Amino acid sequence: MKLTDFITISDIKEHVFGKAVEGRIFPELADREAWMSVPLVLQQAWVTQAESYLNYEWPSLRATAFMAYFEEGSRQPYDTVESERRAALCTLLIAECLEAEGRFLREIINVVWLICEQTTWCAPAHHYLSLQPGELLSDIEEPLFDLTAGETAALLAWTSHQLKAPLDAVSPLIRKRIRVELERRIVTPYISRDDFWWMGFGEREVNNWNPWCNANMLTVLLLQDMEPERKLLLVDKVLRSLDRYLEVQFEDGGCDEGSTYWARAAGMLFVNLELMYRASDGALQVYDQPLIQKLGQFVYKMFIDDAYFVNFADGAAIASQDYALVHLYGSRINDDRLRALGQHGFHHYQVPDRTRKGNSFFQEMISLLSFTSIQSEAALPPPFIQEAWFPNLQVMAARQKEGSSHGLYAAIKGGHNDESHNHNDIGHFVVYVNGKPFLIDIGVETYTYKTFSPQRYEIWTMQSGYHNVPVINGFEQKEGRSFRAEDVTYEHSEDGVRFGLNMSQAYPAEAGVRNWHRSLTLHRGAEPTIELREVCSFAEPTDGIQLHMMSTQKPELINPGCLRLQDRDHNQLWLAYDTEQWEAAFELISVKDESLTRVWGESLYRIQFKLRHTVRHGDWTFKMTERQ
């Protein structure tokens, strides 16, 4: 689909720019009734957070902190301070809107001024966008529009819009400075350049950057004053750019960046759609379109239990979804299961503190203004769907029983090794028991310079050797689109589901594998079982085969041919294998990276099944059950 087939420039001119935007997206500062309808407990929590920034000693953004990314590979010295400034401004802005007494105004002005004085709003890691990349510092004459610049611009636009009267009462130069910086850093680069890859007007395929950056551009357009014809020119480019994103979306709604990135992919597309919907008083919408609905549904189809989601690629198994946005998406497309996921997560909503940042003003406002209505809704059952199949994405997920997280859960993927946020993981699978992880996808460590460099696959978490796939004659899978799954199949019935693929093409020719057909079957019924079958053949006889499985729990050899994994809540996974064919061992992996310890703690285990005999053909089965 194309947005431009449903929303035209004349539509925008009539329904959006033909009337004042005030009050159509969020309540204006003067609408005290709307702001006072926010529950008192939330008002107090936001105000308390904002008070921590009164008389705050604002940290500086040093040139050496910017340079640290290029010299040391660390994003933290610069990004931490930069994100703290935005988090502080968002908190102060919301608190001032709630209180409307001017108590936070001076610190708002302080941080606005600091942000406007920054040499760049673009993160050091994204300065490859420059026409002359490679410098240790940013060129003030070349403003770059990346994710961070967009988030900063949208927040400043909201600040100027919401606090127009009180800021102008202090000095009209404050909002003038915001207008000047938005024009110089965001509007002009957006309209004058087509070579930012995320726009989609070049050869590189777009990802979540596209809807994310465009949502921020659209926010600036809706909230800032500029010539009407120029606004129309810009919004036309936004719509055409979003069409490039929609062009590369799978018809099945699958997100190859994983469920963790859903909030920044389909979720940010939804922000664009919702901005247009609200700014037009509901006149402009595409929520009835099948692709928009399927993109939204992906996130609950990957939901396992609690905060766990299927997390292939760079995603984390514990995904911090924006549940109010999930709920609103479900309401707009009339999908109760998506609404149910939003309900499920939003019951744990808390006002973000200074150690938990990241959401935009738009996202925080959706949570704030929908809190009462979501909490008062009749409870919907959690979306524990029995199975999900994405033929374009080549991902399957299935659980033992519809409507319950009890029992076995498995997910497996095909695809290729050049996906967005790719790991070399063709044929990789995960297994959960009673909603708890046992055989896992590790995820990714904290991003550094190396993460998105040519050395990406030197990082252990990206390598197939640390996924649940074989190492063949010493060779792991390789990166690149040509390294892919073939002959992918999916079968399902009430008795179970089966996913099959040939993953021999994921390995280099030197591995000597002619065929490796893996199938994963979830058998339901009286004795639920997950069966992993490997059927393979090789160019020469070999005993150089290892099967790896990454586990959260220390394996215990209870009986010959049977490993037990048990968590602290006494959930168990029993893993049976043929001792005549395989020798089992495991190694402890100490986890130190904060992004991983937050999910898994400080220890993981890599189970290693090593082939005992030389073979030219193999046909092996591993069985997993909740009970022995």
TrEMBL record:
Its main location: other. It comes from the Bacteria. It is found in: Cell envelope. It holds the Pfam family Hepar_II_III_C. One of its GO terms (molecular function) is lyase activity. GO terms for cellular component: cell envelope. Residues 416-527 form the Heparinase II/III-like C-terminal domain. This is Heparinase II/III-like C-terminal domain-containing protein. It comes from Paenibacillus pectinilyticus.
